């Protein structure tokens, strides 16, 4: 009986160790930002970037994305309570 418990405990411990190692490693499809000049490539479509406390701050950040050619267009969507979410559209 004790041998079975030891084998079960050892198996569980090895499984937990394997999960810890694989959980800490980067996925195979991950890209380094240096490969794209500091910009991480995003899938085509709309992407939420950040939230802002004023419409002016949201628009300023959206204009920065356009100026750097990181987005084709942007929207500042109202979240209510004077907060705005910046969404950008990319189409690589």
Question: Overview of this structure, please?
Answer:
Mean pLDDT is 75; it is low at 21-38. A three-stranded antiparallel sheet has the order 1-3-2, covered by helices on one side. It has one domain (2-29, 40-90). The radius of gyration is 23 Å and the shape is elongated. It contains two helices and three strands. The protein is α+β, with helices and mostly antiparallel strands and 92 residues long. Helices cover 39% and strands 26% of the residues. It has helices at 2-24, 55-67, and strands at residues 45-52, 73-80, 83-90.
Question: What's a concise summary of this model?
Answer:
With 92 residues, this protein is α+β, with helices and mostly antiparallel strands. The chain is 39% helix and 26% strand. Keywords: Signal.
Keywords:
single chain, 92 residues, alpha+beta, 3 strands
Structural class: alpha+beta
Count the beta strands. Answer: 3
Coarse shape: elongated
List the helices and strands in order.
Answer: HEHEE
Percentage of β-strand residues: 25-35%
Adjacency order of strands in the biggest sheet? 1-3-2
């Amino acid at each position: 009986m004790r041998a079975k418990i030891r084998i079960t405990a050892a198996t569980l411990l090895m499984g937990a160790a394997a999960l810890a190692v694989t959980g800490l490693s980067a996925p195979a499809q991950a890209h380094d930002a240096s490969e794209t000049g500091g910009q991480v490539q995003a899938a085509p479509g709309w992407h939420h970037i950040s939230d802002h406390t004023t419409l002016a701050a949201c628009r300023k950040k959206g204009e920065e994305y356009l100026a750097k050619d990181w987005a084709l267009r942007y929207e500042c969507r109202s979240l209510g309570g004077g907060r705005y979410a910046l969404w950008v559209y990319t189409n690589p």
